[in-house]
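Still learning. Show one?

>
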Amino acid sequence: MAALAGVAASPGLGIGTVMVIAEPCLAYEAVEVTDAEAEKSRLHGAIEAFSALTREKAEVVRERVGDAEAAILEGHVLMISDPFMVAEMDNLIDGGQCAEAALDTVCETFAVMFEAADDDLTRQRAADVRDIKSGVLCQLLGVREVDVSRVPRGTVLVTHDLVPSMTAGLDRDNVVGIVTETGGMTSHSAILARALEIPAVLAVPDAVRKLPEGAQVIVDGGEGTVAVAPDEAELAAARVRQEALRREKEALQRFVGKKTVTADGCQVELFGNIGSVEDARAVVDNDGEGVGLFRTEFLFMDGGAMPTEEEQFRAYQQAALIMKGRPVIIRTLDIGGDKDIPYLGLEKEDNPFMGFRAIRYCLAREDVFRTQLRALLRASAFGDVRIMVPLVTGVEELRQVRALIRRYADEFSREGVACNKDVPVGVMIETPAAALMADALAAEADFFSIGTNDLTGYTMAVDRGNDRVRYLYSAFNPAVLRSIRSVIAAGTAAGIPVGMCGEAAADPLLIPLWISFGLTEYSVGPASILATRAAIAGWRHEEARALAEAVMGAVTPDAVFDLLKAAAR
């Protein structure tokens, strides 16, 4: 049985027949226009038609899946309706470009901007922009969009990219698996596949060519493999695994509404990571106990101009109201040379990961930072809002942020505006400097949150996007684990909460280590909340400490992994 490998994007096992979904031809001739007003009218009409169709799709998704997933499509309408984007297209048309070319140019500018980001979640937004572009091009060219609503039962969809606009018509009773050539864990196609509970394997190279129409396949969304033409014995084994997975899923339901506790009764907090207000609803839907990381850069990257204080306030306020008094940890703007937002005037840098980004940028641009901090302070009157500072390297940065917060809180006091003047302020521990100075930072911070993604990269001096050195990027590396252990120890000694918001927080192999180290808060993707709660419930501290003692004596990532794998539950 041949097998293809990709990204394990949506767990489950699907057995079915391949249906290849071809993308529509959207080729156009970039003619020069002479009647700019007529061409702009044609563009605006196409945008309106696209928006109306997308709203209809969003309602279908809302009924079939939920509000958070519908909001993905509603976000497409907001983005293409952004006055800055439309104005840029109009300017290009005034310069002689046709509507198709103007749309293409502006959308690609935004897509490239997203792709330059250093985190997967932001990079995946490029796919959304291109989905929008394709939808409007369909309207301009009179091309019918792909319709997957009438596929037969037992279908495995195979396509270059399953974009959100396609998913509105997906019927989970008929579609048993999804395979794409692009996308990742944080792409909206993955999010929607997980919400629909359809097994999905993404980023399978050349999948459209290698998986012929009508072929029988097994899609393993947990392992990230696609088995082609399985024999009877292999099909029987897959069906046995399907039943086992069904039982495991049912077992997770017993953790709904329960506190997150270890097997010996020690309670911790289990939060969700979000990038938008809509994601906060997904945290609630998945029984999260709060928001451990609200990435605010999306508010800045989804439009053509800096969001106003009022716009930011509304977003933070809505997240706080949705969580109904549960903690909402909001990270201040984490933007820099690697996330090129045209209107912020950022200069290109040779080494943006170590350049003018995150808190360095914010402290240098008080006009930008003041707007955000004031919005955050106003939102703090509506819930348990906490402010988290990214890329901290020393106590002086934390002190500067606290001084600004005090100043703006005093302004609100004089203006009679409600806010929590004692809003908790914490730091992300994601640089070796912060990890080494954790004791000093703990004396002045209200909480820590360990960002394992960047901490791993910076500790190992590895660009995880570089294929030649990616093998060094691993949270199982003893250097990374020793750093995390010392950070948690420093926070515990100072009596402050220590959380983790990187991908490692949800890794069931690593969870016994976090328990033994004394981690008090886990923040994971909304879809991973129940599985993480179950994994935490499977360990007693005595058992976790014994395993950690053996693991921390290992000196290679492979040895660490083998020990944790052997003890997995």
Q: What stands out?
A: The mean pLDDT is 90. DSSP finds 24 helices and 17 strands in the chain. The first strand starts at residue 2 and ends at 5. The chain has three domains: 4-22+147-251, 36-141, 264-567.
